[in-house]
Amino acid sequence: MHEATLAENILNIAIAAAQENHAAKVYKVGLTLGELAGVEVEALTMSFDVLKKDTSAQDAQLVIKRVPCRAACNKCGKLFELERYNFFCPECDGILILQTGRELLVDYVDCE
Ligand SMILES: [Zn+2]
């Protein structure tokens, strides 16, 4: 995942939202980020802070909500919270289907 590209996309969404609402400034950008989305939060925040200069989002703060990774077994149906991606159920060796953890969404844009 290229955090700089991602930061640019998020910034564009925020600026577009401000324009749509005829707002002069963006205050906050809410982001939902799965643990397995493969994004370095620090790198993302740093890129965002560099790119936002001289835009309507220059004072905007990234508010990031992390979503843990959950998977369900296709055999026994048990739900597991995963630390890292695991393909097989620890209880019955069924196949785990990822339910959450790969999210990468802009939830909201708070502007003036
Ligand atoms: Zn199972």
Q: In terms of topology, how is this protein built?
A:
Blueprint: H1 3-20, E1 26-34, H2 41-51, E2 61-67, E3 69-73, E4 79-82, E5 96-100, E6 104-111
Parallel strand pairs: 1-2
Antiparallel strand pairs: 1-6, 3-4, 3-5
Helix pairs in contact: 1-2
Bound molecules: zinc ion (ZN).
Verbal overview:
This protein has a domain at 3-68 and 101-111: 2-Layer Sandwich (hypothetical protein PF0899 fold). The chain is an alpha+beta fold. A hairpin with a 5-residue loop joins strand 3 and strand 4. Helices cover 26% and strands 34% of the residues. Helix 1 crosses helix 2 (41-51). The radius of gyration is 18 Å and the shape is elongated. The strands form 2 sheets. Strands 2-1-6 form a 3-stranded mixed beta sheet, covered by helices on one side. Strands 4-3-5 form a 3-stranded antiparallel beta sheet, with no helix packed on it. The protein is built from 2 helices and 6 strands, in the order H-E-H-E-E-E-E-E. The structure holds zinc ion.
List keywords for this structure.
112 residues; alpha+beta; hypothetical protein PF0899 fold; 3-stranded mixed β-sheet; 3-stranded antiparallel β-sheet; 2 helices; 6 strands; 26% helix; binds zinc ion
Q: What is the overall pLDDT average?
A: 94
- Name the strands of the widest sheet in spatial order: 2-1-6
Please state roughly what percent of the residues sit in beta strands, choosing from under 5%, 5-15%, 15-25%, 25-35%, 35-45% or over 45%.
25-35%
CA-atom Rg in angstroms: 18 Å
The small molecules bound here are: zinc ion
Largest sheet: 3 strands, mixed
CATH topology of the domain at 3-68 and 101-111: hypothetical protein PF0899 fold
Global structural class: alpha+beta
Sketch the topology as an H/E string, one letter per element.
Answer: HEHEEEEE
Tally the helices: what do you get?
2
What gross morphology would you assign? elongated
Task: Count all strands and give the number.
Answer: 6
Helix share of residues? Answer: 25-40%
CATH architecture of the domain at 3-68 and 101-111: 2-Layer Sandwich
Poorly predicted parts: none
